[in-house]
Amino acid sequence: MNIGLDLGFGYVKGVNSQNKRILFPSIVSIGFDRPLAGIFNTNDIIENLHVRIVDKTGENSYYVGNLARREGFSDSFTLDIDKYTQPEAKALLSTAVMLLTLDSEPEEPINLVTGLPLKQFQAHKKAFEEELKNYKALISLPEHKLMKTIEFEKVTVFPQAAGAAYYALLEDLDRYLYTDSYIVLIDIGFKTTDYIVFLIEDRPHFLPDLSGTIDTGISKIFTAVEQIYLAKTGATIDTAGLMTILKKESIYFKGKYVDFTEELTALKKELARLIEKRIYATLKEVFDRVSTVFIAGGGGSDLYPYLKNIHADVVLVKDAQFANALGFLKVAEMNR
Prior knowledge:
2 domains, 29% strand, MreB-like_C, ATPase_NBD, Plasmid segregation actin-type ATPase ParM, Nucleotidyltransferase, domain 5, ALP_N
């Protein structure tokens, strides 16, 4: 089975060769038995990811995703910039792969393509690939009486943003093949923004010297909203509340809804301006020869209205949040 997996700082996005998709927050907490789970919770697996993982480090129990957000000892986003070294990353990855392979045969080989930010890619690609190639774990969902052994026949680590670029370009390649022009893709995530540049000759050529990672993303808005919420209500707010505000632009507090529309608009405009400024500083020598700027990522969907005028042809990639995972799946299918 081919799997494209985007292990994002904000959300885990995955898709398999049967076009099954999974999406859940990148939140992991220590897990405990939940004797009342069956009484009040639905049978929706992805909403109740209490997982047990047995690997070479021993046995560990976790709440993952929305369950960790609701009931976890820590409800904050788990991954940091060195995510490939973290045990929480293995928990997120194992959980995602299990969900994507529940309907497969036990011995069906798994061809996994995943990514690292451009800033980390050169330094850590080989180590991350080797770690995943040698990884084997028994993962179970005890509340759902499910168990699976996870190991990989083939692993490819790809630059983030490059996956989204493959997906965007292969949808309609001829439209973008202007010889001697450049194409830029901006992938806005939770903690980082990757931008990737291609020179179009006989085919797209990746230009690593013009591509890079900006250490900012939608989490910058979370940090600001946390302070705005405190100023408006006099109270603190948890991660679940911040996610609600970002999604709905308001939240219920002491008998009424507190509106954040104006503040969120201002914050998104400012974040978009900062990203545009950083990218233009790198690309100013070639920007006049750029034919298309693609916007991708979950944060790309949020900021597209404020970035759509930075160039004459700015395109929001179809399925922007899943663009990297879908691109990784295309790479897996080509590398079979």
